[in-house]
Amino acid sequence: MKLSLILFSLLFSFMTSAEVPKTHLLVFGGSGDSAGDTTIFDNGLKDLSNYYKSKQLNGELGETSISFDGGHKLTDEIRTTNFPKSKTNQTFTQVNYLKEIEHFKKMIRNNSVIKPGEQLLIYINSHGSEKSKSDLSHSIVTGDSTTQKVSLDQLAELKNLAAQNGVKLGIVDLSCHSGNTQNLADNNTCVISATGANHYAYAGRGFNGQFTGNIERGKNLESVFLQTRDIGTTADFPMISTPEGQSITNEIYKLLTPYLHFRNQPLQRDGSISDKISAEVLTTATDPHYQCLKNNSFTSLNNLLNDLEKQTMAIRRTFIFLRPVSLLNFQELRKSLKQYKEIQDSLARKLQSMHVENLNKIVKIDNANHYSWQNLLNTDWEIRVKYSTYHLLNDKMLTPGEKKQYELNIKIFTAANTAKKKIQNENPGLEKYKDVISDFEKGNNITLKLAEKIASFEKKIYTALYKNRMQETKKSNPCRDFKF
């Protein structure tokens, strides 16, 4: 009798395990950080390895490919030691990126490797750039160099093959500007983005730093998204491609975008300052059309908040279930938004008094090279002339074509430097616009505090609206159906 029970238990256990669809894992990222032993992506990679090991232990892990980092000692050690049975474990380069996409496309076509009904999770965690005009999504930095990038548009054919062959697909993009990756979503593909199309993502306490640690067997992509988003305070705007998520994003994101920017000034990989609020106020100061649109958008935002506040009366039970109603203080949110807009408008008016509209003027150097005043003033043309001259005189391996290009560069950069000096002489004080933007906070981080305060309110409202709309629809979607 006991033997029969044991055999039945083993058979039941086998059948249960067999019914759980395998999850295949394709990982890209870890690149773009400055030289050193570690990267800001290390903790995310460790958290992902915990999920990897739990799936492996339960016999639920399929094909795994890790293409991560390239040149950071401790990061590479995490990659090589924490994913011991991954068939592919390599650095993240452009060549490896394209090779692994092709490899997974072949495995989907060959139904005996990645079968219909199974799942593929594409996990991306690297530095990301804004969307170019030609891209559907955006690009991320590889380990080839700090400037080498690959477009996530390369995933489109893999995505289509997954849908055609009945393979559930999840794309988690934790990079900056990952909101652009929402454009890859469809009825078979769940896309989760750490932030909006116009914003940075944040490691540590940001969505980028928290999401992977919340992944556990038994959860789904939607539940992990909501759990992570709800606890954040950073000024990002995490997105999900469900109907509920898309509807809320369409209502709120564009209107809130200017007030989630702030002055933080970390150095970028190219040495420039990462500061979207400067671009925001400068555009407001130089473009009357944009300023008018911004004022209209602010009115629309306040009208939307009034409507949402009225909706809370109808779904008060949902709000109370989620958190104390007092924390959803629409009046305080409106106050913070008004304060932030006044700060931006005041700074824009100060810049206007300096005639920064002239920064948009264009100088024609030759038929192929036209520069705005802003580009001319912000570029060290003398350094560029010296660099080109040095290579022209000292590089003995130059081809005739390369020599000709350096000669042309010297001519263009010299002319641009002459144009810059003319602007400086005829418009004394115009360059000080950069100092005005740099100094306006006087070290008190007011834009950071306001942006994070607004983001904190936004996350509370988002969660409440999302869960209410879940109750209304109660329909399946690719994010809800993708089980960890």
Description:
There is one protein chain. With 484 residues, this protein is of the alpha/beta class. It has helices at residues 2-19, 42-57, 73-82, 94-109, 156-164, 207-210, 221-230, 243-256, 276-286, 288-314, 316-322, 330-352, 373-378, 381-394, 400-426, 433-439, 446-473, 478-481, and strands at 23-29, 61-68, 88-90, 119-125, 139-141, 149-151, 168-173, 189-193, 239-240, 362-364, 370-372. The strands form three sheets. Strands 3-2-1-4-7-8-9 form a seven-stranded mixed beta sheet, with helices on both faces. The longest helix is centred in the C-terminal third of the chain and has 28 residues, at 446-473. The protein is globular and about 75 Å long.
Summarize the structure.
This protein is α/β, with parallel strands linked by helices and 484 residues long. The protein has helices at 2-19, 42-57, 73-82, 94-109, 156-164, 207-210, 221-230, 243-256, 276-286, 288-314, 316-322, 330-352, 373-378, 381-394, 400-426, 433-439, 446-473, 478-481; strands spanning 23-29, 61-68, 88-90, 119-125, 139-141, 149-151, 168-173, 189-193, 239-240, 362-364, 370-372. It contains 18 helices and 11 strands.
